[in-house]
Design a protein that fits this description.
Length: 296
């Protein structure tokens, strides 16, 4: 079996069996293609004939080429998964990547906005035109729910239940319902009742948020919107669409919310993904203590 055929087999597994996200699919396939290119250029092996020594040499080569610890660790995970598929399909007898050990990566805590900075950002959309009403509804919804931007732009207008104050969200094959605070409900109600009908290009359009052409909002389009409001608000921190998600979780924790409830609202499969926000809140408390306590 050729390298190309092996990679196609791996892609089918990631898509049909594991149902990986588009980002995971792209990253894993890129890692294996890069391994294949290395083998063709620097060894006498291919993907099937590689052994533990060949893969160890590849890791050494990656490090010497200046690849980050995170990149090397992800590549190891990709190789273990790839060869696991080949073992299951009896293409190879054993997994040559099983003995590879990923490097320990110091976890970088996410940047969050303070409550005042969030308020400042949410105040920026001016409700004087269709775009202003739409943008206010988007930002309020994002901070109210902590959902991913990919989930936000994938919402249908039927996913919003104004009467119940809930949004139905499906992300990474996990369904959840997230409550909305009153300001978000008001902003969404205004947008859905008066603004969206004027913006959609076709009566058949189901997307909740649409661009100026009346079609479904793109991730890149939302990125530009949030960056423009960051500039307008004069916020110096680097804001990404994920910043409001991080801020949502951290602010809930600061105000005593249960971490399991936050995990459910964020759609995290593993509680460890949510616990990073507990570390962030503790760090902030320590920073405040050091700055404010007279004997610190």
């Amino acid at each position: 079996m050729t390298d190309i055929a092996c990679i196609e087999k791996f892609e089918r597994y990631l898509t049909d069996v594991k149902k990986s996200s588009s980002n995971t699919l792209y990253s894993y396939l890129r890692d294996i293609r890069q391994l294949s290119e290395y083998l063709a250029s620097y060894s006498k092996h291919n993907l099937i004939t590689s052994d533990p020594d060949v893969l160890s040499n590849y890791i050494v080569w990656m490090r010497s080429s200046g690849k980050s610890s995170a990149t090397v660790s992800r590549s190891i995970a990709s190789m273990k998964c790839f060869y696991g598929v080949l073992v299951s399909d009896k293409v190879v007898n054993s997994n040559p990547a099983s003995g590879l050990v990923p490097e320990k990566i110091k976890q970088k805590l996410p940047e969050i906005l303070t409550s005042k900075e969030v308020e400042l950002l949410l105040e920026q959309p001016e409700c004087v035109d269709l775009k202003g009403y739409r943008d206010r509804a988007m930002l309020e919804l994002l901070y109210a729910t902590g959902m991913r931007v990919s989930e936000l732009i994938s919402l249908s207008f039927t996913d919003i239940n104004i009467a119940a104050g809930l949004v139905h969200c499906v992300g990474r094959n996990k369904e959840r319902y997230i409550p909305l605070y009153p300001a978000a409900i008001r902003a969404l109600n205004e947008y859905m009742e008066f603004i969206r009908p004027q913006m959609i290009a076709s009566p058949d359009e189901t997307a909740l948020f649409v661009n100026v052409a009346g079609e479904s909002m793109s991730r890149q389009g939302f990125w530009k919107i949030i960056k423009s409001y960051q500039t307008k608000a004069g916020i110096k921190k680097e804001i990404t669409p994920h910043t409001l998600r991080h801020s949502f979780a951290a602010h809930l924790l600061e105000n005593g919310a249960d971490i399991k409830a936050i995990q459910e609202m964020l759609g995290h499969a593993d509680i460890s993904s949510t616990q990073v926000y507990a570390h962030l809140v503790k760090k902030q408390l320590k920073d405040v203590y050091k700055k404010a306590h007279p004997r610190a």
